[in-house]
Design brief:
The chain is of the alpha/beta class. The protein is built from twelve helices and 14 strands.
């Protein structure tokens, strides 16, 4: 966890329940360093959005404390709001207004006027690649353009901290890459960014630091490299025919001493082994002896999905399905 002297966002022991049997947050704690991209990574329903709502003063925890830019979110919510920008999962842009008008109205809400506001709006339109579309109604923008407009709008007043809740959901790969290019540029310029995401590859590639959230708790935290380095060995991934059950696979590998752990997710099984290339022949021999047909097999270094599995006890995909059901 980041030291308090360098932390711009701090959460301590946050707990939140919506009903007696629904716990959204279960003692969640973390801190975010200045000028970093901090990712809360977890499946839908893990507690990420609830955390952001508390930090942006839209909700209150049942227990715990939090501060943003050195301001207590519970006792001074107004000051917190003036210091942050926040983008939810749904677009906040007014569709009937142009991109230029959306930014201008936001600036006026924060007391900006005249040449100062005009320069700021022009700079943001250029920075976010929206200058050519500035006079078009926002409702005519593509999904990626609307997302960039959302972020540009909350940056008009130069907030110290930017909160983004699943900012790339619904965007195509090109749009996601373009948005992340903007976000990493903002972080390099000094903006502190807290982003929630369920895209493992985004957190791996772009986040300065990652906190993995499962069932309202942070189960692991560190850089992507630190988290993956904590898992020694490799993963052997085997894809079986749809007719093969998880029990059949478990019986097939039960007698292989090199397999530390094996978990099935549909017809794909991931086995943790100390040395993938050396262990692979034994794994293939065991499944062949058991008469279990294999469609494909691969050996990989630890991934964030492996980290999630190790700390949460189930794969990321399984957690998504548990939440949905």
């Amino acid at each position: 966890m980041t030291s308090g002297s360098n932390a711009v966002v701090e959460a301590h022991g946050l707990r939140k329940s919506y009903k007696p049997d629904i716990t959204a947050l279960d003692g969640l704690s973390f801190s975010v360093a200045a000028g970093s991209v901090f990712a809360l990574l977890g499946p839908n329903g893990a507690g990420k959005t609830t955390t952001v709502r508390i930090l942006t003063t839209l909700s209150r925890p049942d227990e715990g404390s939090a501060s943003v830019a050195g301001i207590n979110v519970l006792s001074q919510p107004g000051l917190v709001r003036s210091s942050i920008g926040s983008v939810s999962q749904h677009s906040g842009a007014m569709g009937l207004l142009t991109g230029h008008e959306n930014l201008t109205i936001q600036g006026r809400l924060y007391g900006m006027r005249g040449a100062r506001l005009r320069r700021r709006v022009s700079d943001l339109l250029d920075q976010f690649g929206l200058a050519e579309a500035a006079k078009r109604q926002a409702r005519t923008y593509s999904g990626g353009m609307r997302r960039r407009l959302d972020i540009a709008t909350v940056l008009v007043h130069r907030p110290a901290v930017l909160f983004l809740d699943e900012p790339t959901t619904g965007l195509d790969p090109e749009g996601r890459a373009a948005l992340w290019a903007v976000l990493t540029g903002l972080a390099k310029a000094g903006t502190t960014i807290l982003v929630t995401t369920h895209y493992l590859e985004e957190a791996d590639q772009y986040a300065t630091r990652i906190a993995i959230v499962d069932q309202g708790r942070i189960v692991a935290e560190g850089t992507a490299d630190e988290l993956k380095a904590g898992l020694r060995g490799d993963s052997v991934l085997l894809e079986f025919a749809d007719s093969v059950s998880a029990e059949q696979f478990e019986r097939a590998v039960a007698g292989i001493p090199q397999v530390r752990r094996a978990t099935a997710d549909g017809n794909v099984v991931r086995a943790r082994v100390p040395d993938g290339p050396r262990t692979l022949p034994a794994v293939l021999a065991a499944v062949e002896l058991a008469g279990v047909p294999v469609r494909s097999v691969s050996v990989t270094r630890p991934s964030l999905d492996d980290v999630y599995l190790h700390h949460a006890g189930h794969s990321f995909g399984q957690a998504e399905r548990i939440t949905v059901s």
